[in-house]
Task: inverse folding
């Protein structure tokens, strides 16, 4: 990894964190129903029809989703700083394996655009799906290099892309709002299982998806018990491949 590549990686990571932090802290809040305000902060908020489901990942409404987003920011930034200080993508250390940093720069750079695209599910699906695919490839290439941020980011990107796809399907097919979280979870779980088996012994990808499913369930399960069931199925599926990856 050249010094210019390390610098580009670091700058891209910083832009991603700044863009995400700015959106999460200062973007106008999505409108929720009066019943949500009356329910109090300790109860899950029902999904308002006008709230794009990807917003729950990019503009969190509960502590678990906030913790996931902060973990993403921290891991991406620390990985970039670590590669600046002690790069593992140099020709000597790669031992003939392909580079990882170009995939990270494209994926993380694209992710800086996600907050502004939550109301455009088609574009967000393409960009987030591309980022997830690139980082899944990166996670496989990073096997044995002690870089958990790559797989973790890939899992989160998979969840965001699936949420955007669910929002798009709802818009095109006129599905009721409470069905969208279910659609957001189950396809992500199916893709996630296949991706984790391909990545190999790295638990970051599955851990991020399980975390995302838990957070989405807390945000939305107040509207329909089926959301909780879908979350349980998704978490169980990812837990099974996580155990296999860990062993």
Result:
């Amino acid at each position: 990894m050249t010094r210019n590549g390390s610098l580009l990686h670091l700058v891209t990571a910083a832009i991603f964190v700044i863009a995400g932090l700015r959106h999460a802290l200062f973007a106008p809040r999505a409108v929720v129903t009066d019943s949500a305000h009356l329910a109090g902060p300790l109860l899950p908020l029902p999904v308002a029809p006008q709230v794009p489901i990807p917003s729950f990942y990019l503009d969190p409404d509960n502590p678990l989703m906030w913790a996931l987003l902060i973990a993403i920011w921290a891991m991406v930034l620390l990985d970039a700083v670590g590669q600046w200080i002690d790069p593992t993508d140099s020709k000597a250390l790669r031992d003939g394996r392909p580079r990882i940093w170009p995939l990270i720069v494209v994926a993380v750079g694209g992710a800086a655009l996600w907050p502004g695209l939550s109301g455009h599910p088609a574009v967000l699906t393409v960009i987030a799906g591309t980022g997830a695919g690139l980082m899944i490839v990166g996670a496989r290439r990073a096997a044995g290099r002690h870089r958990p941020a790559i797989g973790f980011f890939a899992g989160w990107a998979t969840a965001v892309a699936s949420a955007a796809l669910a929002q798009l399907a709802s818009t095109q097919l006129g599905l009721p709002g409470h069905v969208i979280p279910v659609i957001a979870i189950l396809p992500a779980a199916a893709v996630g299982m296949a991706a984790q088996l391909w990545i190999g012994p790295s638990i970051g990808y599955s851990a991020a998806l399980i975390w995302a499913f838990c957070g989405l369930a807390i945000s939305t399960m107040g509207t329909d018990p089926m959301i909780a069931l879908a979350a349980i199925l998704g978490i169980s599926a990812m837990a099974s491949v996580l155990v296999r990856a860990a062993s």
